[in-house]
Amino acid sequence: MPVDTGPEGQRELVGILWEAVGRVLEASRLDWRVRRLLEERGLCRSRAVVLALGKGSLQMARGALECLEPEGGVVVKPRGMMGSVEGLEVVEGSHPLPDEWSLRAGSRLLEWAGSAGEGDNVVVLVSGGGSALAEVPMEGLALEDLQEVNMLLLKSGASIHEINTVRKHLSRIKGGRLAATAYPARVLGVYASDVPGDRLDMIASGPTVPDPTTYGDALAVLERYGLRDSAPPRVVALLEAGARGEVEETPKPGDRRLSTTENRLAASNMNVLEDLAAWLGGRGFNTLVLTSRLEGESREVGRALASIALEALDRGVPVKPPVALLAGGETTVTVRGGGRGGRNMELALAWSLAMAYWSPEAPAAILAMDTDGIDGRSGAAGAVAWPWLPVALRDAGLDPYQLLADNDSERAFAYAGSLVSTGLTGTNLNSVVVVLLGPPPKPDDGEA
């Protein structure tokens, strides 16, 4: 149990949130969701080349092979994630920045896709993280160019949609190009979403999905965040040449090379939120799913969620306590300091500061975690926080406001003992936020 959780009501809610961590992980499993989709498509016992990439690649491939008869293929998993899939080659890539292993993984995907012919089936299993784990740069670009521009974008505060718009136009795999390589084989893209709004073309930069964005759009992202002058010159030159029509665009809707490709969503953040809401409802909480599309600066989102929590506690709006407010998505962090942490930890720390300002003894607590097990630059998935936490930090000689300013939220939660540490989970359905507002329900009030 974390140290100094303040009033009893906060301690009880924190305890329930620790139980909720396991529920989040179970609801995020991908194997059975992939198997169910393939069964619904009538593909069981079909022969297919199987390609999988992303943080959920192992789970998705295992689920697929419970239904398909593989004719070979490759699984691209994060380095350090243990596991294999019988009948498929398994290679590793790097995340969040691509490396030499990512280039090898990308080459293997293209080789397997290119080996399929007319009448063959290719099932491509795609989950978040695939943008970095597998890569083949456009002609004229070096690995160092991709690493540098990705680092600039990740630190800029750009949304995942904006980042992937740039990535698609620097790659021979992304933006539908992997599926185009497999033409005229029949391609089924199966996606597990880690992006707000579940846009398939943005999940791992949509390797099998027609790309509605352009080289001009990619240049506009660099301009928007003041990166055009600092981005690698070869990156800027390629995007400028593409905008002038001198480099072939990514496959667009209606492209003949994607006419034999179909794409389906197998799992999303909303699936996790709904499963979690059902469990918390069984515990006696009134539940409200706010959104699966959280975006924006993490600390600002945290403050906004605190304002909703305070309104519910004070006036019973939008729902009366005991209540579980649930949300998911992918917020961003503009890195200004040299500390360690991630989007979920920043959100949770900002929430606790806002709650402490108005009501440090309020019966409230928050869980913010990433389903993949890694939150930003930290070694944890996220954190649990409560309104009394800033008081406890100040009593220990730590300034929570300064920790937030330095992007050093991990230090706050390491002191509190409330880091959520799961290790790599083998899934990736974005971040989950749960706010519990008391008083906690009693077991005889409906707890399952």
Write a concise synopsis of the structure shown:
The chain has 448 residues and is an alpha/beta fold. It has helices spanning 8-27, 31-40, 57-65, 100-115, 130-133, 143-156, 160-168, 177-182, 215-224, 233-243, 269-282, 298-315, 343-358, 389-395, 400-405, 409-416, and strands at residues 47-53, 69-78, 89-93, 121-127, 186-192, 261-267, 286-294, 323-329, 364-370, 382-385, 419-420, 431-437.
Give an overview of the whole structure:
With 448 residues, this protein is an alpha/beta fold. The protein folds into 2 domains: 8-27 and 270-439, glycerate kinase, domain 1 (3-Layer(aba) Sandwich); 31-267, Rossmann fold. 40% of the residues lie in helices and 18% in strands. The protein has helices at 8-27, 31-40, 57-65, 100-115, 130-133, 143-156, 160-168, 177-182, 215-224, 233-243, 269-282, 298-315, 343-358, 389-395, 400-405, 409-416; strands at 47-53, 69-78, 89-93, 121-127, 186-192, 261-267, 286-294, 323-329, 364-370, 382-385, 419-420, 431-437. Strands 3-2-1-4-5-6 form a 6-stranded parallel sheet, sandwiched between helices. The radius of gyration is 22 Å and the shape is globular. The model has no long low-confidence stretch (mean pLDDT 95).
